[in-house]
Amino acid sequence: MIRKEEVTAVGELVKPHGIAGEMVMTTVYDGLFDDMEDPYLICDMDGILVPFFIESYRPRGGSSLLVKLDYVDDDRAARRFAHHTVYYPIDRLPEDDPEGDEPTWERFVGYQLTDTAGHAVGTVESVDTSTANVLFSVDREGEELLIPVAVEVVRTVDHAARRIAVDMPEGLLDLN
To answer: Which residue in 33, 52, 116, 159 has a CA-CA distance of 20 to 30 Å to 89?
Structure first.
């Protein structure tokens, strides 16, 4: 059984492409499946993380692929996967995954967010990159908290523990 703490979000199956079962997959990782003998991806299907083997894939523009899964042979079957987050085992991510000056914030979905003192803030549920200020949407005891994030505020990242510590803007946690 695949456990949630063993995987991280790496993209999304957006929509079917054509009528033969191909799907558009967005991802921030270059060469995600390149070094695999039997490439696969993982989707949450009704609360269960399920691996799906990839029959074929090919690049489509800068940050997307066209993916064909085994046994998904028409657009009707492909529509079942539309808007599903794609997960991948943390320990299998490419070595050259984005870190440096402009990290890919989506990789932190599912991570525990803490302040610099180590106090738990909540779990990163999603990332909003639609504006100039990137925001983590954090689940804090059932309530959504939007945390602005930038390279300058990230203090430590522990991928093994799936934890990220950030300098919290003063007074942000006191807002209701």
So the answer is: 116
